[in-house]
Write a structure and sequence with these properties.
heterodimer, A: about 525 residues, alpha+beta, Gyrase A, domain 2, five-stranded mixed sheet, about 45% helix, B: about 180 residues, Alpha-Beta Plaits, four-stranded antiparallel sheet, 4 helices, 4 strands, about 60% helix
């Protein structure tokens, strides 16, 4: 689970310290841890803080702390102002809104509602203040235990936070937290905090009421001390009227009467609050919801509800924190409500406001410093490894290349040699192909008829000039010449045979035909 | 945050920055430079090696080609004559003609300038001879069988009744000189 999603609440009262850790889970919250420690002195408180720190405490948790009994709160109506202007207005009217001079108190405000009145936009503001010296002594105990809060808020905001997470509440709800020492009542109107009241009446008063010396009807005297009172309250709560008795023999009908003073007192205070709300805000309370230690006492809510005509029920806290024991959760309503951190003020002095962030940053820095060394070493190692691999590859390639270089040199020298040979071959004189003169001579020898005599033969440059004469009878001369021409034409060596001239003559009285033939050599 | 805590935090941040910066500058940068150089060298060497391997594949065919060209050159060059050999070769040709009962009337050797110009080229030689037509044909046929490169440029054969059965042949052929 990511640590940064954890949120925690710490409620500190004069007799009890309650601590709860939650983390958001879908639309609800999962309770990770709860601690409840009884205290009497500052030493107990320090010890309790130390136990919390050594337990499930994580410094990066957004811890919201409340001191419900010491915080003074006032509600006021202001016109629409910016936060800065509002702060200035509060300081100017310090005697009205703060417990002391602004220099001596820490204070903060929360705008809970904006509305129109007489055509003016106004805002309802809750102003909280706390004497600096008181706060510093409290915070010094926390600092001694190395617990640095993220915010310092008020218990009424814890209840408002719970109400904000319960949209099904009626429009005018009185949410009551009956705690160990105090009872906190908040009037939630349409989801907004409208009024808050804290009275010094809690379960501890009820326990005191139960610490009695009782004369039983049979004459026996029973003494109930603080521990036994706590056991009886836990075991029986406010028992139903019956014939049963406690282990000491106290009849339940009698035991029930011991709770009456507390029930009456709390009912009177609730009535007083309801009447105040009715008279001041002109609204009637639709329902009362009870949580806190009181809600976990058997039949207490039922007994209180009998005093009222309006519905009075146990607050459904497991709706926000499912899968948890309801009775346990009621005890931690305030720290859980603080941890939800929907609406809160911050009464921490400015210097301390940054303390939590500073601690977180210092942790990150230390973590970074611690991590940076192995990370740097790892990066260097990886770089070194890469370099070594490359060097080895380089060496391997060099060996391969040197071996292959011999081949390359041979190749290059062969290419040069080949080019030189080609050049030399090209530089040699061109020897043209001789025409087939021998074949021509043989052919002429074969195709020349006996009575035809060649007188001249010139063969040059693919060109032939043949001269001759045919002797014999007049009739056969032309025929003999034609036969010769035909033979020439059929030979594979000649083409374009042209008879240049022919003439008839006689030599020694014998008729002759002289001729000149020109042709091309193929 | 108190002043000394703030100072400590700032110092810590600065220290981390200095450590990381110093490590980067003094250790990582030289390594990265060295790696880049090595990568470039490896790439070059790989490329050369692949080229060389390609040479190796072509080496045998190249050797064959060189041998073939060399043999061709030797053979071709052997058919050419030098300036000093010209007259010897002409005499050899003349002897061949005589061996075919041809009667040499005239031999015109090539111009002396052509023989001794130190250039490669053809040298025209002109033979004038008498003989029977068939013997002349055989002589010409034999010329092609000589070891030297000889090409016949021109043949003129003429006959007359007073020469019969012989003919007069004028043969111009080219010898080829190598420088």
């Amino acid at each position: 689970m990511p640590v940064y999603r954890r949120k925690s609440g710490l409620q500190i009262t004069p007799t009890i310290v309650k601590y709860a850790v939650v983390r958001p889970h879908r639309r609800t919250y999962r309770v990770l841890h709860t601690t409840k420690l009884a205290i009497k002195t500052d030493a107990d408180k320090s010890r309790a803080f130390e136990i919390i720190r050594r337990g499930n405490f994580v410094p990066s948790d957004k811890l919201v702390v409340s001191y419900p009994t010491d915080i003074h709160h006032v509600e006021a109506i202001f016109p629409k102002l910016s936060d800065k202007e509002l702060l200035h207005a509060i300081e100017l009217n310090a005697e009205k809104y703060l417990t002391d001079k602004p220099e001596s108190v820490v204070y903060d405000f929360k705008v809970t509602h904006r509305f129109m009145e007489d055509h003016t936009l106004k805002q309802r503001v809750f102003i909280f203040s706390l004497p600096k010296d008181k706060l510093e002594s409290e915070l010094s105990l926390l600092r001694t235990a190395h617990i640095f809060p993220y915010r310092l808020s008020d218990a009424s905001f814890a209840l408002w936070n719970l109400a904000a997470c319960t949209p099904e509440l009626p429009p005018n709800t009185l949410l009551v937290n009956i705690d160990t020492d105090y009872t906190i009542m908040v009037y939630i109107r349409e989801g907004k905090l409208w009024f808050s009241r804290t009275i010094p009446l809690g379960v501890s008063s009820l326990l005191k009421d139960l610490q009695l010396t009782i004369s039983l009807p049979e004459g026996r005297v029973v003494v109930i001390d603080a521990d036994r009172a706590s056991e009886l309250l836990e075991k029986y709560g406010i028992p139903e009227p019956s014939d049963e008795t406690t282990e000491e023999g106290i009849p339940f009908s009698m035991f029930r009467t011991f709770h009456r003073p507390f029930i009456e007192k709390i009912s009177i205070e609730l009535n007083r609050t309801i009447n105040y709300i009715s008279s001041t805000f002109n609204r009637d309370i639709d329902a009362i919801f009870i949580t806190g230690d009181g809600a976990s006492i058997k039949n207490l809510v039922q007994s209180i509800s009998e005093e009222f005509t309006i519905p009075c029920n146990e607050y459904n806290i497991d709706h926000i924190f499912p899968a948890e024991s309801k009775s346990t959760l009621h005890e931690f309503a305030i720290p859980l409500g603080l941890a939800i951190d929907v609406n809160n003020v911050n009464l921490l002095p400015r210097a301390l406001e940054y303390e939590w962030h500073a601690i977180l940053y210092r942790r990150y820095i230390k973590l970074l410093a611690v991590l940076s060394i192995p990370v740097l070493i790892s990066i260097y190692g990886l770089l070194h490894l890469q370099e070594t691999i490359l060097k080895e590859r380089m060496a391997s390639l060099s060996i391969q290349y040197n071996n292959a270089k011999i081949t390359a040199n041979e190749f290059i020298s062969l290419v040069e040699k080949r080019d030189n040979l080609r050049k030399r071959l090209q530089s040699l004189p061109n020897v043209p192909r001789t025409p087939p003169y021998v074949g021509i001579l043989k052919l002429l020898s074969n195709i020349t008829p006996p009575n035809l005599q060649l007188t001249k033969l010139e063969l040059s440059d693919h060109h032939a000039l043949i001269s001759g004469m045919v002797a014999g009878t007049d009739v056969g001369l032309e025929l003999q010449l034609s036969q010769f021409l035909l033979n020439l034409n059929q030979s594979p060596y000649f083409s374009a045979i042209t008879l240049l001239n022919k003439s008839h003559t006689t030599i020694d009285g014998i008729p002759c035909l002289t001729f000149d033939i020109e042709c091309k050599i193929k | 945050m108190k002043a000394h805590e703030r100072r400590t935090t700032i110092m810590l941040i600065l220290l981390i920055v200095v450590i990381i910066g110093g490590a980067f500058y003094f250790f990582f940068m030289p390594k990265i430079r060295s790696i880049n150089t090595l990568q470039a060298e490896v790439a070059t060497l790989s490329r050369r090696l692949s080229e060389v391997r390609r040479y190796r594949d072509e080496l045998n065919s190249l050797r064959d080609e060189v041998n073939r060209l060399s043999a061709q050159l030797t053979l071709t060059e052997s058919r050419f004559i030098t300036g000093e050999q010209v007259l010897t070769v002409i005499n050899e040709i003349a002897d061949t003609a005589r061996s075919y009962q041809l009667r040499l009337v005239n031999i015109e050797p090539p111009d002396i300038n052509l023989i001794s110009d130190g250039k490669s080229g053809s040298l025209p030689v002109h033979f004038r001879l008498y003989g029977r037509f068939i013997q002349i044909g055989k002589f010409i046929e034999q010329l092609e069988n000589l070891q030297y490169a000889i090409t016949i440029r021109e043949i003129k054969i003429s006959s007359s009744p007073d020469l019969y059965p012989q003919v007069l042949a004028e043969i111009t052929f080219d010898l080829y000189k190598l420088r």
